[in-house]
Amino acid sequence: MNQLIVVAFDHLDDARSAMKRLRDLEAEGRIAFEDTAIVEREPDGKAHVRNEVSGTTEGAAAIGAVVGGIVTFAFPLAGIALGAALGAAVGNMLDKGVSRDFVDEVKDTLTPGKSALFLVVKEADADPVIAALRDFRGEVIQTTLDSETEGALRQALS
Fold first, then answer.
1. Model's pTM, two decimal places?
2. Are residues 115 and 48 in the same domain?
3. What is the C-alpha to C-alpha distance for residues 112 and 75, in angstroms, rounded to an integer?
4. Are residues 64 and 31 in the same domain?
5. What's the Cα-to-Cα distance from 146 to each of 52, 143, 151, rounded to whole Å?
6. pLDDT tens-digit map of 56-89
7. How far is the CA of 74 from the CAs of 68, 77, 101, 111, 155, in angstroms?
């Protein structure tokens, strides 16, 4: 089951730096993401949201490419259009990522100079994930983690 973790950080660059550390763990096979997003609120108040490619998006694109390739072989122009439409439809049906409305809600509450990290985690080894975040100060905004893991994460970020 996917787990949602949303953390607000005290500094603008912390969400990006934390995501880099988590991507290193992903490369080692210690965590797998369904979706991620980073929100940064500049000192002038301007907010930026960066959604990263999720597993759902990658899967939908692959399905669309295969179907589009097959149909393109038979009907070139129709195949390209059908492949793109099918990829988008599959992506919508499979969407398990971070809700855009929730990202906007958190974005509106971030004060200038802060950032937030949204993670939808497919699987993870909690200990290295918590250790990777220990160097950052922040607050857990929302999570679906069990209470023991959530407590350890909160303590690591304090």
1. 0.71
2. yes
3. 52
4. no
5. 25, 9, 9
6. 444 544 555 555 555 555 555 555 555 555 444 4
7. 10, 9, 41, 54, 59
